[in-house]
Amino acid sequence: MAPSNSEIRRVVWRALWSSRLLVYVSGLFGILGLGLASPPDTPTVGTAPFGYLGNFLVGPLARWDSVWYLLIAKTGYGPHLKRTAFFPLYPMLIRIVGWFVRSDLIAGVLISLVCFVILLVLIYKLTYLELGREVAEVAVLITAFAPVSMFFSAVYTESLFLALVLGAVYCARTGRWALAGVIGAFAAATRNAGVLLIVPIALMFLYGPRESTAVALQSVADHGWRRWLPRYRVTPSLAWVLVVPTGLFAYLAYLWHSTGSPFTTFNVQSLWKRQTLGPILGIWHGLEVTWQHFQFLNGPRDPGCVGASRDQPDAARILCAWCRCMCRGTAPTTLRVRGVRGARVSTAAFDAYRYAAVLFASPV
Q1: Engineering a disulfide at 164: which of 101, 187, 253, 320 sits with its beta carbon 3.0 to 4.6 angstroms away?
Q2: What are the tens digits of pLDDT across the range 115-173?
C-alpha cells in the first residue's frame, strides 16, 4: 500500500520548517560571531546585493561557492576558465527564475528550497517501498537534520543534485526507464558525478527490485554462478540508460566550442587546488587531510589548507575545519533496521554509485 499524500506532506513539512529554522538561526548567530567576511580570493558580487540588514539576513544562504554560481548566472562563463569547474544547470535555473523574481540570489535560494522539498518526498517514498513507514519518517528527519544539510537551503547545487539523483533512482525503481534516463541526464549536467547514475539504473533494470510487468528469468534464491546472471530479460528499454551521459556531453560540447577543448572543466581543477585520484589514493588523501585538520584544531598551523586566516577567531577556524572534514567524509547509507539483513540490489546499486562518486571525484 502506497503512502497517502497527506501523510507525506505531514512528515516532510515537519522536517522542512524545523530543520530550516534551526539552520537559519544558527547561521545568523554564526554571522554575529564571525562576521560576513569572505575568503580573500573570492569575489562578493551577487552575495551582498541588499543593505546591511538585508545582507545580514541572507548571509547564511550565500557564501563561498555561491558567488560563482551567481556570477555564472549573471554574466555566463565568458573568458574566465576558472568558472568552468561549475556545471551549468544550476546557474541556468537561477538565470531563469531570477528573471521572474528580479534577484538571482533569491532565485537560488528558492530553487534550493523547492528541490529540498522534492528530495525529502523522494527519500520518504523510496524508503517506504523498502522498509516501511516508520523507517521512512526517520530517514526524512536524518536527511533534514544532518550536519551538512545547511547546504540544502543555500545557493549550492546540493539540493538540486540530490533531488535529481533520487528522482532517477525512484523512476528506475518504479519501472519508468525513459524518465529515469532523462532525469539522470539533468543530474549529469549539474555535477560530473551524475553520469555515474548509469550504474544503479542499469543494475535495477537487470536485477531489480523494480515494479514492472516483465517476468523474472530466475529466482532471487538461485545460488552459485547463476545468481550473477540478469534476473530480467534485456529489452530496448535498457537503452534509456545511455541518455544519462548526454547531460555531461552537452556541457563538454559547449566547452569545446567556447574554449577549444572539451576537457576544460577537468583541466582547470588545478586552479582550485584539486586533483583526480583513484580509490586507494583517494582514501589515503582523505585520512591525511583529516589528520591535518585535527592538528589544526589543536594549535596554530598554516591556515591555507582550510581557508581560515590567522586573524580569525578560534571559532571560525574550528568551523572551517569541521565543515571540510564533514565534506570529505562518507558514511554508509544502507539502513539496517529491525532485523533487515543485507541490502537489496537497488540499495547496493545506489551505494556503488555513491562510493564511486566519492572515491574517484576530485577532492574538495
Answers
A1: 187
A2: 999 999 999 999 998 888 889 899 999 989 988 888 888 888 999 999 999 999 999 99
Q: 332: burial class by Cβ within 10 Å (0-12, 13-18, 19+)?
A: exposed
| CA dist 299 → 13, 175, 193, 307, 314 (Å) | 42, 54, 36, 15, 10
Q: In 3-state terms, what secondary structure has residue 296?
A: helix
Q: How many CB atoms lie within 10 A of CB 69?
A: 24
What torsion do the CA atoms of 259, 260, 262, 268 make, to the nearest 10 degrees?
-50
Residue 315 lies in a domain: no
Report the number of distinct structural domains present in the chain: 1
Q: Grid coordinates representing 211?
A: 515494479
Residues across the chain: 364
Specify the pLDDT at position 246. 94
317 within some domain: no
Residue 137 covered by a domain: yes
Range of the domain at 123: 5-266
Q: Which has the closest alpha carbon to 261: 86, 84, 75, 88?
A: 84
Residue 305 lies in a domain: no
pLDDT tens digits, residue range 54-99? 566 666 666 677 888 888 888 888 777 888 888 999 999 999 998 9
Query: Please, what is the Cα angle at 190 between 281 and 85, to 5 degrees?
Result: 60
Cβ neighbours of residue 231 under 8 Å, at least 6 residues apart?
206, 207, 208, 216, 217, 218, 220
CA dist 363 and 286 (Å) reads 8
- Helix or strand (DSSP H, E) at 316: helix 314-328
Chain segment 293-338, per-residue pLDDT in tens: 666 666 554 444 444 444 444 444 444 444 444 444 433 333 333 3
CA distance 340 to 343: 8
Looking at residue 56, its pLDDT comes to 61
Average per-residue pLDDT for the chain: 74
Residue range 218-242, pLDDT digits in tens: 555 556 666 677 777 888 888 999 9
Helix, strand and coil percent figures for the chain, each rounded to 5? 70, 0, 30
% pLDDT > 70, the chain: 64
